[in-house]
Design a protein that fits this description.
- The protein starts with a helix and ends in a 7-residue tail after the last helix.
- By secondary structure, it is α+β, with helices and mostly antiparallel strands.
- The chain has five helices and twelve strands.
- The chain has one domain.
- Strands 1, 2, 3, 4, 5, 6, 7, 8, 9, 10, 11 and 12 form a twelve-stranded antiparallel β-sheet that branches.
- The protein has helices at about 1-15, 95-100, 210-220, 225-230, 240-250, and strands at about 20-25, 30-40, 45, 50, 55-60, 65-70, 75-80, 130-135, 145-150, 160-170, 185-200, 205.
- Strand 5 and strand 6 (about 65-70) form a beta hairpin.
- Keywords: Signal.
Length: about 260
Amino acid sequence: MTTLRFLFLFLLTGLLAAPAQAQRTYYVQEFAGSTVLLTNGDTLQGPLTLHGGEDVIRITMPDNTVSTLSAVAIESFAVKGEKQQRRNVDGYDFFDTRRGYYYGNPVINPGMISPTSRRARVSADLVRVYRTYRWNHDNDYSDFKSPGFFEQLSNGPYMLLRREVQVEKRAYSPGPYGYGGAPGYNATYIDIDDKYYLATPTGNVRPLRSVKKDLLAIFKPQAKQIEKYAKDNNLSFTQGRDLAFIVNYANSLQPAEGK
């Protein structure tokens, strides 16, 4: 009876005290260099801090003053030299996929792609490109849209986009007597989750919550061809760069404008 009572109290306490499995936190990235294109046509350059959750950047000007800009004032920006990389996986270079490359592309010379680049860790000197789109912040029941930053991963006309979300997750370890025994050490850790979107030729942003299902629904007429292409090339619908190859291939299947 004493053992059962202890287990009940332990489980009850854990349920009441445990935080959410994944809780969003503020994600701030610092880059050594940037080029920012404003909506008025002006261009700014300098070290940049990206506040992704708030869609705000802070750029250090040549005179060491700091300019704070929201997404409404920015058309696009490119950054390089991330000072602290927190990602453990999927840190790929999207230079080739932003140009429209995919396996089997007859236009782009495959020799331009290094054989090891598909799974290589990204260099701090490589460039990442962000574009501003108006979106509903994943609220499907709202017609209100405001500008937000999205990283460009593929070429168009349908463009694969990504937003990185920093989340606090809970890590569990069993107690000395296993999962059914005394409580073990509970801790939290910070991780980066990817949220994928697809920009349409009309400028709308569509979320890819169930990535494979939603993507194939958007490209429904070519769905079987896309699935076969992904299978033949061993591409994953959950890895960013593989997904960019798939989107570029899907773009190649679209009828030419005016036909």
